[in-house]
Amino acid sequence: MESKGFSEKHRVTYYETDMNGTVGLGRLVDLMMLSCNDQSDAVGLSSEKVNQMGLGWIVTQNMIDIKRLPRRNETIYITTHAKSYNRYFCYRDFWIHDIRKQELAHMHTVFALMDQNERKIVRIPENLIEPYHSEYATKIERLPLPKELERIDRQKEYEVRFWDIDINQHVNNVHYFEWMLDALDLDFLIKYQPVSMNIEYKKEIRYGQKAVSQAQITMTGVETVKTFHEIKVNDELSCRAVCDWKLRKEEWII
Amino acid sequence: MESKGFSEKHRVTYYETDMNGTVGLGRLVDLMMLSCNDQSDAVGLSSEKVNQMGLGWIVTQNMIDIKRLPRRNETIYITTHAKSYNRYFCYRDFWIHDIRKQELAHMHTVFALMDQNERKIVRIPENLIEPYHSEYATKIERLPLPKELERIDRQKEYEVRFWDIDINQHVNNVHYFEWMLDALDLDFLIKYQPVSMNIEYKKEIRYGQKAVSQAQITMTGVETVKTFHEIKVNDELSCRAVCDWKLRKEEWII
């Protein structure tokens, strides 16, 4: 059977947007993941069901390209496609389009399956992948990985909150965005808008732990900046990312 | 003209729910406020427009009753009604119903208008209230107020994050819920579910400030608890609340 995509319509609510009137990066990923969740529900493999098997899907890498961030009250189309898989990894693509079919954002994501007790990645059983009609590929994708920080320009500490925890009983990846980007501070986040981001997740964070979010800010042009991010718990790396930004201009926003 | 309500349909997404599979209290208020925002847009008085006049609506008190929290993927109806107003305050009611028209939650809210430069409450101009067809009432409502803490059982510190700030350039009230309830910790929030909450907002919190969230936990029965909350910045009270909880039981959840 041919590989199939899944698409849905969504209206961006006011509380899904920030001071800039647009969706933040973490929320953008939430929106994309919504289509993935809804597809899983539709094929009868909801997170709850996978959870009852003692398993849970986790994301190991996200690569996001942003043409324009969805705006407050905007109606968007979210699409997902479980592209291919091998024994341990699933590769899934996501897109957000506006009502004129213009692409706003694209994300390529690597998923793995975690054993809830062992907290380790396990081989993907056929019955958990078959309903998505992905293509089997023997090769493991070689994606570019974000580089280590050369220096720490900004640093903030984050204590895990109740609302950071997801069905896998650890901090949901999406909250890492808040920690990574909030460390850049308000002035930066108003001045610049994100263009692309590459995030590699290394180790889960549990309730009760304290995370430190470190960032390096490097000008790459007159109006462009690259930021490098690391989240650590007790000096152990949980997440590493690189993000490209451009100056926020009215003509780009409207 | 007769006073009018405003109603809309909403599907609860997975990211609007927590580990319990239901909407948290902060998000519940977000959902209710959505109807208020949409009504304001519909009558041509969006937050952006009010903002351009140098003004902003702020909430001074919320009183919430919860029969059942909306669940992941559930379709709900959100209704709002601008009940009455006087020179300085607007009284607005909110309801959430399920698809069988059963009431899930009800909130009574007091709104005031803030001058964005002076950061002070101002008299409500007729043109900002007339389109809602509220009833003019000379009296100021005397609502019960949450009591001062007698002791501090739990305490946590919260630094304002970029995503806490709203169009009024201060921490949105909704984030106070996260601070107040997260201080109770994971075990408590899994064990108990909220029944009602009364929140009084005293002073705004700005970016760069650090808030301390203090809570008192008092058993009121074998399966019921009352929690008292205060949020302070430099020892100055920003918010005070009282919340009633009952033991989370399967028969209440389903």
UniProtKB/TrEMBL annotation, chains A, B:
Tagged with keyword Cytoplasm: no
Keywords noted in UniProt: Fatty acid biosynthesis, Fatty acid metabolism, Hydrolase, Lipid biosynthesis, Lipid metabolism, Transit peptide
CDD domains per UniProt: 4HBT
Molecular function (Gene Ontology), one example: acyl carrier activity
Xref: InterPro entries: Acyl-ACP_TE_C, Acyl-ACP_thioesterase_NHD, FATA/B, HotDog_dom_sf
Domain Acyl-ACP thioesterase-like C-terminal span(s) in chain numbering: 153-246
Occurrences of domain Acyl-ACP thioesterase N-terminal hotdog (ranges): 5-132
Keyword Lipid metabolism: yes
A Pfam family matched in the record: Acyl-ACP_TE_C
Family: Belongs to the acyl-ACP thioesterase family.
UniProt name for this protein: Acyl-acyl carrier protein thioesterase
Lineage of source species: Bacteria, Bacillati, Bacillota, Bacilli, Lactobacillales
